[in-house]
Design a protein that fits this description.
The protein is an alpha+beta fold and 535 residues long. Helix content is 33%, strand content 20%. It has helices at residues 20-34, 71-76, 83-90, 107-120, 177-184, 203-209, 252-257, 291-303, 316-321, 344-356, 375-386, 391-394, 413-432, 464-484, 500-506, 509-522, and strands at 67-68, 100-102, 122-127, 147-152, 159-163, 168-172, 189-190, 226-233, 236-239, 266-273, 275-276, 280-288, 310-314, 330-338, 360-363, 399-405, 437-446, 449-459. The strands form five sheets. The chain has a five-stranded antiparallel β-sheet. Residues 11, 80-81, 125-133, 136-137, 153, 173, 195-197, 201-202, 204-206, 208-209, 211-212, 261-262, 266-267, 388, 492-494, 529, 532 line the site of flavin-adenine dinucleotide (FAD).
C-alpha cells in the first residue's frame, strides 16, 4: 500500500478507477435514461498546475521527522470525498490547504502536536482515511487560526492484542479496513464492519464518525462493536474500561469518543468485539412492482427478529441509474450468514415475508452459493463496487452527483419519503431547470424504522463555481426537509462541516451547551477540528 499514490481528485489510488468503457456506459445511462448530459468535458488540474500558499506554520524540531509539507500530501489531506470538495479541487480552490501533515507514531507524538498547535495557534484536523463525505477533514477553519495541521493516523495501524476467549481485539485508530482484517484473519476472527469505504477508511475514523457497516440489521454501527476506547486530548488521555456491558452512568465511549469527529480528541486505539468468520451464507433477490410493498417486506423481516446480514431495497430509478434495472421494479436483496449454523430456516421465513408483501423471486437462494452474483442482485452488486469512482468522471463533466442518508420510524415513513423526495426534486428543478434523477434505497433497517439513502443527479452549470452554488442550494433544501420532517441529518455519514447547521437544529439546545462545555474543558485552546460538532 505504501508504494501506491492516493488520488487527490477522487477515490482510491491513482491507478484505480473506471475503465473507458465503464465511463462511456455511465455517461450513456445518464444521457439516454434521464437526459442528463455533460455541460463541459474538462479535467481536474494536474499537480504541476496547482500552486499552494506557502506553509504558515513550521513543525518544531521534535516533530520534524514525522511531519511534511510535501505538495501532494498537503492537497490530499485538505479535502475529503464530498461533492463540494470534488468541485473545490476542480475549481483549483487551494486557498485553505493544510500547512503541514504530521504522521504520529505514538500517543506522545500526538501530545507534542497539541503543544505545538496551541503555541502556534494552529488548527488540528485528525485524518484517518480522508473518506469523509461531509467536510469532516476539509481544511477550511476560518481566519482565527495562524495555520492548519493535518494529523494522519495511518502509521498507528496495528492490531495490538487479540483476546480469542472473549473474542475481542485491541486495534490502533489508524488501521484501515483491509489492514485490520488481515491481522485478524490468522485468528479466524473478523470485526465484520464493512462500510462501502472500507478500503480507505480507518478504525478510529469509524468510531469518530459512528460509521455504519454493510450489514443492514443488528450490529449496524461501529458503536455496537466497541468495548472501550483511548482518546488522547490536549489535557490528557481518556481510557475507558474494557467491559462487555456496563450500567455505570453515561458511557465515556459514547460521551467522548463516538461521534466526536476529531473535535474532542484523537482516538488512538480501542478494544472491539469480534466474530467468527462466516461459513454459512445465503442470498436471495425479490422484485416488487411497488416501492412501498418492498418497504413493507423490509418491515416484516425486521420485525420478525430474523436479523439478516442484508435486507436492502433499491428503487427502480437507483437501479436504472446504475445500469442494474430498467426502472420498472424495486429490488430487495436479503442475505443471511453465520459462522455457527445453517441459515436456511431464517431465509425461508424471510422469503415468506417478501412473497406475502407481493415480491416475486429475482434470484432463488436454494442450493445457490452464487446467488449474490446473479440477476439484478449481481448487477446491483457490481454497480455498488464501482460507484465510488463515478464522481471523478462526473464532476469535470459538469454533472452534479450526490447522496444523503437519514432514518425515520415506520409509522412516519411514507409521508416522510414523499416529503423528502418532493423537496429534492423541486430543488433540482428550481436550481438546474431539469428534472434530474432522484432515487432511494434502504441502507439499514431496524424493527422500528428504516434508514433511507437518497441519491440525486442533475446537469450542473458549465462553470465550476456556479455548479458549487447549485449543489449548495439543493443540499440546503434537502437538509431543511430532513429536519422539518423529523428525520436525522445523517444516519451514518456523520456531521462534518457540511451538516453542522442542521445538527445544531436536531440536537437539544442544552445538550449542545454541554458539548460546548466539554470541548472547552478538553480542548481549552480550541484547536481541534474547529467548526465540527461544536460550532
Ligand atoms: C465511497 C464512500 C463510501 C462510504 N461508505 C460509507 C458507509 O458505508 N458507511 C459509513 O458510515 N460511511 C461511509 N462513508 C463515509 C466515510 O467513509 C465514513 O465517515 C468513515 O467512517 C470515515 O473514516 P475515515 O477513517 O476515512 O475518517 P476521515 O474521513 O479521515 O475523518 C472523518 C472524521 O473523523 C475524524 N477522525 C478521523 N480519524 C480520527 C481519530 N482517530 N480520532 C478522532 N477523530 C478522527 C476526522 O477529523 C473527521 O472529522 C463513505 C465514504 C465514501 C467516500
Amino acid at each position: 500500500m505504501a508504494d501506491k499514490t492516493l488520488k487527490y481528485w477522487g477515490w482510491g489510488y491513482a491507478e484505480d478507477g473506471l475503465s473507458a468503457a465503464d465511463t462511456k456506459s455511465l455517461l450513456a445511462t445518464f444521457a439516454d435514461g434521464f437526459g442528463i448530459n455533460p455541460s463541459r468535458d474538462r479535467a481536474f488540474p494536474t499537480m504541476d498546475a496547482i500552486t499552494l500558499p506557502t506553509p504558515k506554520v513550521e513543525a518544531p524540531a521534535n516533530l520534524a521527522k514525522i511531519s511534511t509539507t510535501d505538495k501532494h500530501d498537503r492537497v490530499v489531506h485538505s479535502f475529503g470525498q464530498s461533492q463540494p470538495d470534488s468541485l473545490r479541487i476542480y475549481n483549483s480552490d487551494f486557498d485553505h490547504v493544510v500547512d503541514v501533515v504530521a504522521y504520529p507514531e505514538s500517543n506522545e507524538d500526538i501530545a507534542a502536536i497539541y503543544d505545538w498547535a496551541g503555541d502556534a495557534n494552529a488548527a488540528v484536523i485528525p485524518f484517518g482515511g480522508g473518506s469523509s463525505v461531509v467536510g469532516g477533514v476539509t481544511s477550511d477553519v476560518g481566519s482565527k487560526y495562524n495555520g492548519t495541521i493535518s494529523v494522519d493516523m495511518t502509521r498507528m495501524n496495528k492490531v495490538l492484542e487479540v483476546d480469542a476467549v472473549s473474542r475481542a481485539a485491541r486495534i490502533q485508530g489508524g488501521a484501515r479496513g483491509p489492514e485490520l482484517e488481515a491481522q485478524l484473519k490468522p485468528h479466524g476472527l473478523t470485526l465484520r464492519h464493512f462500510p462501502q469505504s472500507f478500503e480507505h477508511s480507518t478504525f478510529g475514523g469509524w468510531i469518530a464518525t459512528r460509521s455504519g457497516g454493510h450489514f443492514a440489521t443488528l450490529y449496524t454501527h461501529i458503536d455496537d462493536l466497541v468495548e472501550s476506547t483511548t482518546t488522547v486530548t490536549p489535557v490528557g488521555d481518556i481510557v475507558s474500561r474494557r467491559l462487555p456491558g456496563s450500567g455505570a452512568g453515561p458511557s465515556p465511549d459514547r460521551f467522548i469518543a463516538m461521534g466526536s469527529e476529531g473535535s474532542l480528541g484523537i482516538i488512538t486505539e480501542g478494544w472491539a468485539r469480534l466474530q467468527g468468520r462466516p461459513t454459512f451464507k445465503a442470498t436471495a433477490g425479490f422484485r416488487f412492482a411497488d416501492f412501498f410493498d418492498a418497504a413493507r417486506a423490509v418491515r416484516a423481516v425486521s420485525q420478525a427478529g430474523l436479523y439478516p446480514a442484508n435486507v436492502r431495497i433499491v428503487d427502480g430509478t437507483e437501479l436504472k441509474v446504475n445500469g442494474a434495472g430498467d426502472g420498472s421494479f424495486t429490488l430487495m436483496v436479503v442475505s443471511f450468514e453465520s459462522a455457527d449454523h445453517p441459515v436456511e430456516p431464517w431465509m425461508a421465513r424471510a422469503e415468506e415475508c417478501c412473497l406475502d408483501a407481493g415480491g416475486v423471486v429475482d434470484v432463488d437462494w436454494r442450493d445457490n452459493p452464487q446467488a449474490h452474483l446473479q440477476g439484478a442482485v449481481g448487477a446491483w452488486r457490481t454497480a455498488f463496487i464501482r460507484m465510488p469512482y463515478n464522481r471523478e468522471q462526473l464532476t469535470p463533466r459538469g454533472i452534479i452527483s450526490d447522496t444523503f442518508e437519514t432514518a425515520t420510524t415506520w409509522d412516519a415513513f411514507e409521508t416522510f419519503y414523499h416529503a423528502i423526495k418532493d423537496a429534492t426534486q423541486t430543488a433540482i428543478r428550481d436550481v438546474t431547470g431539469h428534472d434530474g434523477a432522484v432515487s432511494c434505497r434502504f441502507s439499514h433497517a431496524y424493527p422500528d424504522g428504516p434508514a433511507p439513502y437518497f441519491a440525486f443527479h442533475a446537469p450542473g452549470n458549465a462553470d465550476g463555481k456556479a455548479m458549487l452554488e447549485q449543489w449548495q442550494e439543493i443540499k440546503t433544501r434537502c437538509s431543511d426537509a430532513l429536519i422539518a420532517n423529523g428525520g436525522t441529518i445523517t444516519h451514518h455519514h456523520a456531521v462534518g462541516r457540511d451538516h453542522q447547521k442542521w445538527y445544531e437544529q436536531q440536537r437539544p439546545a442544552l445538550f449542545g451547551d454541554i458539548l460546548s462545555d466539554a470541548k472547552k474543558r478538553l480542548d481549552p485552546k480550541g484547536v481541534l477540528n474547529p467548526g465540527v460538532i461544536v460550532g
